[in-house]
Amino acid sequence: MSTPFQPHLTDIKVRGYHLDLYGHVNNARYLEFLEEARWGFTEDHGSFEAFTKASLAFVIVNINIDYRRPAMMGEQLVIETAMQKIGSRSAMIHQAVKLKGTDTLVAEADVTFVVFSQKTGSAVAMENEVRAIFEALPTWPTKS
Amino acid sequence: MSTPFQPHLTDIKVRGYHLDLYGHVNNARYLEFLEEARWGFTEDHGSFEAFTKASLAFVIVNINIDYRRPAMMGEQLVIETAMQKIGSRSAMIHQAVKLKGTDTLVAEADVTFVVFSQKTGSAVAMENEVRAIFEALPTWPTKS
Amino acid sequence: MSTPFQPHLTDIKVRGYHLDLYGHVNNARYLEFLEEARWGFTEDHGSFEAFTKASLAFVIVNINIDYRRPAMMGEQLVIETAMQKIGSRSAMIHQAVKLKGTDTLVAEADVTFVVFSQKTGSAVAMENEVRAIFEALPTWPTKS
Amino acid sequence: MSTPFQPHLTDIKVRGYHLDLYGHVNNARYLEFLEEARWGFTEDHGSFEAFTKASLAFVIVNINIDYRRPAMMGEQLVIETAMQKIGSRSAMIHQAVKLKGTDTLVAEADVTFVVFSQKTGSAVAMENEVRAIFEALPTWPTKS
Lengths: 144, 144, 144, 144
Prior knowledge:
The structure is a homotetramer.
Chain A: E1 8-13, H1 27-44, H2 47-53, E2 56-67, E3 76-86, E4 91-99, E5 105-117, E6 122-124, H3 128-135
Antiparallel strand pairs in A: 1-3, 2-5, 3-4, 4-5, 5-6
């Protein structure tokens, strides 16, 4: 009945400027990879435009990232992004970075955010239209 | 008898290139601030040289960062860094980013790492000389 | 007879983490965009593998970049990359960043590099096989 | 009579996250080092506050950077910054990156900027009060 689950996919190839002292992708750089993937995720579902119109902004309150395996020069990565859960005041996106075409996990992260109203200057409850936006997004069946 | 606890302190002033879409320091950039502070921390205690000589490397396996308050153009930040705990296979550093001269918390993070031997190609147990290096470092009395 | 000239094309969409204080792509970030495009350029023509095998490295000696028009959130950019000229000791790549689907120039740069031999520890003359690699690459008819 | 010339000095120590594929500071990263130094330069002379009050912004139109010698892990750099020349529509800052305590040049750049009025939406002529601000800044006697 329902469409089979499919996370959003973002491809990134590891380049020389992503690496650090040890020849591995630097741990700060992964947060840019994850942000790149989240923009693609929200864009695919029209969320960013809706948010901007309503003077709402995403504000990240926590990132919990596991580094599983170093990524090296020339490796092709894919970032899988989907909603993890929606609370009353915040919501969580889970993102997995894998070697493309394999199940090898390079990194994975839980990203918790609140929705902030630029009109009222405060966080918005995850209710009604706001909640509906996130409920409509692809959601991980169980945490990978 | 013992010296009163003092975390390592690193000063960073927020500049135009640290900001993003919302005029706040970007969440990936904080990981560079934290790395800068950890290099200063290990350097002050001679750990990096000792590690390099022994062909040991720090490998970060998890970063759990809370973003508490946006940092903006021109703000003066201070990063407090000290050991949090030492396990059998990994250890954790805790870092707090504050507005300088205040108790206002901008961000705080737990950074978990293992020590990797470039000779054996595997993680090293937190025992003997390796454990001694981390036990000699300033350690948070309780998690702030 | 000859194939019509076509520079290498790299697409980049402007994201929140690319911006700075003024809401424009930061000037340092363009150098990452240009590096991304050069890796794609050399990769398409097999140059990087050939270089690595021969223990040769590209070393950039000068970048001269004009910033023509600020790029903003959500804009789709395309980077055009091709060889500009080959001297006796160095060579130059020219890269143009445009708003995709238009002739609007966002930035353009001349990137001068030498080829460095990791075996001899010195720069290599642009002769014989080395010169042949660069002569085989797409070359701008005249500087745009 | 006049104070002897002294460029603005900014210290930066090379850290693991500054490096790339070849173990050298990445060429994009130098532009962040230079920006850091220019903020310090303008700050020391009160220029940024004056500009912000008057709704004026610095807009960089060209950076021409020579990479002279790779900078490596742990090296202590100093960036020397001063005005180079003031034209009718634009002005140029020259910046030299050296190994601290030596004359060894790591990189040097000419940075050309215009002053942009956020009120009129156009560049401002380098006249009167605007020109006076830049004329009061330390200026290189001759290009190093």
